[in-house]
Design brief:
- The structure is a homodimer.
- By secondary structure, chain A is of the alpha+beta class.
- Helix content of chain A is 26%, strand content 27%.
- The structure holds a DNA duplex.
DNA sequence: GCAAAAGTGTTGGGAGTACACCCATGA
DNA sequence: TCATGGGTGTACTCCCAACACTTTTGC
């Protein structure tokens, strides 16, 4: 049985105080004119993660270093693509704020779109990409609690307030700045102090941190 | 690019006070004579979950009702199968104790094997199935904490002690029976009392429960 | 000085652990 | 009546949400 295998990317970032995802406007049938997740075929001599890294580089010009990339799930309903049987392995990628993608890189327009808009159905996604995006969002939300994943949304160095902003945007909640500060700085291995400070918005300068080596947070950060 | 797509099953159960997994002895090259996870090709008109359900039924004769089945991950390294490019979607299945599979169903011998034996490397698995099994075990362990998944290892009706036994075997720890009892009966939606009681091993009869409707446990059951 | 943001101290209540104790059965 | 496992009560500890308060900057 001949199957086509693709990777699709749910690349999330935080821009303009909301969670946004990279989407491409489809130039061809099927679903011409609709938004879709970026993706492409897996090559002959390429692993799945490798293919996702390549797609990521093609879409954003980013080396994999600064981007968190993990397998999200695989979608293979018989007629999810009307042309042929395609099994798609979705990857979840999280990045710090990136520039708007250069136009015309791939003959198709790529843009940052608010996740909420694409999920609310006002702007329907191609294929089963709405389901994939929904699963990606859920995964990201859950992992913020018990893993240091939120740092993947931040630049190399960041303040506690910036990290808190990530949590607040992804979860859509407000967190107490004082307790949050204590929690994250007290969580072993979550943050590494750099010793440097910054002043960005007036007020007392904040310490700058880098991500630490911890892979799991306990106790978790509660919503 | 022509890919073959298969589903592989990590079917776990608890037998003889240990965690066991269904394995099949390979009758052909490659890896002839080695143990492997049960699996097979996805058919033309079949979804991925559907294929996993079919495999499960073929191996165990079980209807999907009583078995928990969820996608675990997808494995597609270029040369994981030396014959052709195979992408395998692994599913994690959890079941209550089942009879030893009938011999000769599928020309290959299927048997319950202790997970620890297969992971410790004393009995090497075919392909990348050791990695898949390891991922499945990790997933099961993690999900016991924050989901009512442990009930999937129990029969339709079960006692608190039987449920505790599941946790103790999967985690390899001992739990305080008294606090455990309070936690699980107090967790809303985890267990539904049937009103019936049973005496299995002498001692005071225990209440019988069924799984409730909760999908998430909070607070979680801690290791 | 005043506003604004960073960071610390304090406290009261809730949750979890450890363990003493009581309950219901079979032999 | 004893052994065995089921189930409840209770006290102590630790954690954490809430919020008052102090620190350090720009204007």
């Amino acid at each position: 049985m001949p199957f086509a295998v693709t990777v699709d990317l749910v690349l999330l970032t935080i821009r303009e105080d909301e969670l946004q995802v990279l989407a491409v406007r489809r130039g061809e049938a099927p679903f011409r004119g609709r938004w879709a997740l970026p993706g492409g075929f897996v090559r002959e001599e390429e692993g799945l993660l490798e293919a996702a890294q390549r797609e990521l580089a093609e879409e954003t010009g980013l080396r994999e270093r600064s981007v968190h990339l993990e397998q999200l799930g695989t979608y293979g309903a018989p007629r999810r693509d009307p042309r042929l049987r395609v099994v798609s392995v979705a990857y979840l990628a999280l990045a710090a704020e990136l520039p708007e993608p250069a136009a015309g890189t791939d003959a198709s327009e790529a843009r940052w779109r608010p996740v909420a808009d694409l999920l609310s159905g006002s702007d329907r996604l191609a294929f089963d990409h709405r389901e994939i995006l929904g699963d990606g969002l859920e995964r990201a939300r859950a992992k913020l609690e018990y893993s240091p994943l939120a740092t993947a949304f931040c630049a190399h160095e960041f303040t506690v307030a910036e990290l808190r902003h990530v949590y607040e945007v992804v979860w859509g909640t407000e967190l107490d700045p004082r307790n949050f500060h204590r929690k994250v700085t007290g969580s072993p291995g979550f943050l590494m102090p750099t010793g440097r400070r910054t002043t960005r918005n007036g007020g007392r300068p904040a310490q700058l941190f880098r991500r630490g080596k911890a892979r799991l947070l306990n106790p978790p950060i509660s919503r």
